[in-house]
Amino acid sequence: MTASGLQALRIGLIGPLPPPSGGMANQTQQLGELLSHAGAQVTTVQVNAPYRPEWIGRVPLARSLFRLVPYLAALWRAAGQSDVFHVMANSGWSWHLFAAPAVWVARWRGVAVVVNYRGGEAAEFLQRSAGLVRFTMRRVATLVVPSGFLQGVFLRFGMPAEIVPNIIDLSRFVPRDLVRSGAPHLVVARNLEALYDNETAIRAFEVVRRHFPQARLTVAGSGPQESYLRQLVAGQGLFEAVHFTGRLERDAMAALYRSADLMLNPSLADNMPNSVLEAWASGVPVVSTNVGGIPHLAQDGVTASLVPPSDPAAMAQACVALLTDEALWRQRAQAGLQEAQRYTWSCVQPVLTGVYRQALPQRTR
Fold it and tell me: Taking residues 269-284, what's their average pLDDT?
């Protein structure tokens, strides 16, 4: 590598891409763009490529085969054009079907591998599958994780990891003037799944409305609980105050944050959610549960208000405290803006470049 670190380095980037937009998909897309702009030659292999033919996606067993075969072929071709594979990995079947095959193809082709593991459910997954994961990880040059929380989880299972934080695009996520005006606007930006407990955010919002009758809530995400959550909203008499947007692409998400007064993260398990970084960069104070890696990411009472999981009353109390104290709200927004600076590309690039430099001598070709 040259003095600047990434010029002419050939990187095979393995991971999901939008659509649909989401944490890991957005991070993969953003990382590919940043690496390319820094001079690297990036070959992206998409793990969530559309099914062809489209109808096969409705056939549970056949769809796995129809996706796996072209995926393995794409990995083989990408390995022939790469010095290092950067594999975006997650728990469960995502590991077994996509991350592990990428490691083994790279091994057979003599390409160094960096596994970039993320996801708040790693402890539960490793409890079940640590032996299989360790077997594959022995073929990996470096395991990187985005937080000290995940680093500790993997260390407990005998797998040391280095920290490479998530990256926030400060050219896209920018703050409005730090002045609250009009009816409070609260935002939730998580998938509509039980793990992210959007129900607690909606029930907390119901309490907030007692203090601020004109308050509104935007739920930006999609998932299997959408119908249930819509019924909950209707049952609580909040139909006109709660708006479900579905998943939003990056620019639309940035615009939503600029209209928000608070961001709620009601998750039951978490690591380093991009939604928190995006809210900070947008000057939006955060109220989050204190689960998993969140206390490693945010300092309670300084950069966020942290509350117990599944506790709508505590979440509502934290929201009301911020919305009724303009000075506290502005102080929290400014602290978030300052914290977001730690996750810019200029801060993360040297760390990632060092990871690649360490990995390259472990090529076996």
Answer: 95
